[in-house]
């Protein structure tokens, strides 16, 4: 059992073995026990799901991994940057938009090509149930005649109609009939 725990810790990168002279010092794995590992100085190691490893003098703490930004999040960020832009029927940016033009333009900024019309956007991609919406899903309203981008927290970013600029609105403010993931 000890070998399995230690091998797992080595595989997970929780322990590194130096090329120092061979000597056995106890290594404590919280919640598991203390083990002698030749070549590893006495320390407490971190295993995912257990308390953090203490900072050792002279050894810099590992950098936190960079957050992963999805294409959907990039599309939401692009659409959010256009909040306040005017609605113009048939416009697809970068200064004015209709609903599907905003969705297409935002996803283009994220490196994804989408169909131009709201009806085509409602038919392409992968169908997503309302209960499984994720940031960046394309949401269809009014039988497919209107589209927007799910921004999380029950909100959608969309170019609503003439006289109303691009805005963030509650998803429940319009009759939703489907969502697609690209």
From TrEMBL:
Origin organism is Rhodococcus tukisamuensis
Per the record, the GO terms for biological process are: proteolysis
What PANTHER family is this protein classified in? NLP_P60 DOMAIN-CONTAINING PROTEIN-RELATED, PEPTIDOGLYCAN DL-ENDOPEPTIDASE CWLO
Instruction: List where the protein spans the membrane.
Output: none
Protein name, entry field: Cell wall-associated hydrolase, NlpC family
Q: Where is the NlpC/P60 domain?
A: 69-182
* Alphabetized UniProt keyword annotations: Hydrolase, Protease, Signal, Thiol protease
Similarity field: Belongs to the peptidase C40 family.
* Cleaved signal peptide residues: 1-24
Pfam families recorded for this chain?
A: NLPC_P60 (PF00877)
Q: Name one GO molecular function term.
A: cysteine-type peptidase activity
